[in-house]
Amino acid sequence: MRVVVAGGTGFIGTNLCTELDQRGHDVVALARDPTGAGLPDGVITKAADVTDRDSLDGPIAGADAVVNLVSLSPLFKPDGGDEMHDRVHRRGTEHLLDAAAEADVDRFVQMSGLGADPDAPTHFLRAKGRADETVRESELEHVIVRPSVVFGDGDEFVYFTKRLKEIFAPGVPLYPLPGGGRNRFQPIWVGDLVPMLADAVVDAEHADRTYEFGGPDVLTLREISELVFESEGRSITVVPLPMGLAKVGLTVLGSVGFPMGRDQYRSLRIDNVVSDNDVGAFGVAEADLKSFEEYLGLATETTDAADSTVTA
Ligand SMILES: NC(=O)c1ccc[n+]([C@@H]2O[C@H](COP(=O)([O-])OP(=O)(O)OC[C@H]3O[C@@H](n4cnc5c(N)ncnc54)[C@H](OP(=O)(O)O)[C@@H]3O)[C@@H](O)[C@H]2O)c1
């Protein structure tokens, strides 16, 4: 099968292209600048911009499936302002769907996210929600995947956690987290997510379905931050930063050129957990997924040797 992965050079994209390549598919990774992405030799790279409809025909010609992983980060304000979310996520998805329909592809896999909704409180989530609507309304057979935050080597989330501390409390063991970091996440490991995505590209039973994916634990931003610093042997004390102050702080940072703003402040108030974890549809048990603590090397291991009774 020939699979075009738009956004195939990003964090999830490089992992997915590698998985699809290992499964024997012909893989094309599409991005604005796909050079130096560290993809396997078998993966073809093509330069294209989803905001430019005409740039997509060449790379998508001959594809059996298209996966849309193109993304602007929700964690930082995009170059060009918040309206770029609509341009890249909604319009970009429309362009990809149109090019995919013209190329007669069999399936379109749309990477969305928890909370994506046309009426959501952030530009990012609204644009993602409108993009999902466009996918559902299209004639193409599709799968929509909505994960919570994804962790793994090269992710942006752990980096963001450390960056927030640098912003609000550089050089001291205090971490003033907006609202005390009470918003909840259900982090899922990229190594668990990607095989399910690869199945979604191919397996007939996933056609026209929408799936929510989360990891085995629900953690607040506070707990996540404490674990990240603990894994580096650093002890921090989280202190609540009143939301009003955080709003002013982030807006001021935005106005002095640091890429944060109202959207980022609003997203710190939104929970990011599944209503129903759909990993079971892929034959995966939630309890078998890698936990964030385990990934950071903090999980206490219960060994069979310690638990078992040896009879002579
Ligand atoms: N990472 C997470 O925690 C997470 C959680 C839930 C959902 N998701 C979703 O999963 C998908 C992938 O996320 P990710 O973390 O892998 O993103 P990422 O690392 O930021 O990668 C984004 C990719 O999109 C490409 N891209 C950006 N603008 C483009 C444009 N105008 N035209 C063509 N390509 C463009 C980038 O390459 P160039 O810059 O070279 O163009 C890159 O390949 C996104 O839909 C995201 O919303 C991610």
UniProtKB/TrEMBL annotation:
Gene3D superfamilies per UniProt: NAD(P)-binding Rossmann-like Domain
Residues in NAD(P)-binding domain copies: 7-150
SUPFAM superfamilies: NAD(P)-binding Rossmann-fold domains
One Pfam family of this chain: NAD_binding_10
InterPro entries for the chain: ComplexI_NDUFA9_subunit, NAD(P)-bd_dom, NAD(P)-bd_dom_sf
Upper lineage: Archaea, Methanobacteriati, Methanobacteriota, Stenosarchaea group, Halobacteria
The protein, known as: Complex I NDUFA9 subunit family protein
Coiled-coil region(s): none
Any one GO molecular-function label of the UniProt entry: protein-containing complex binding
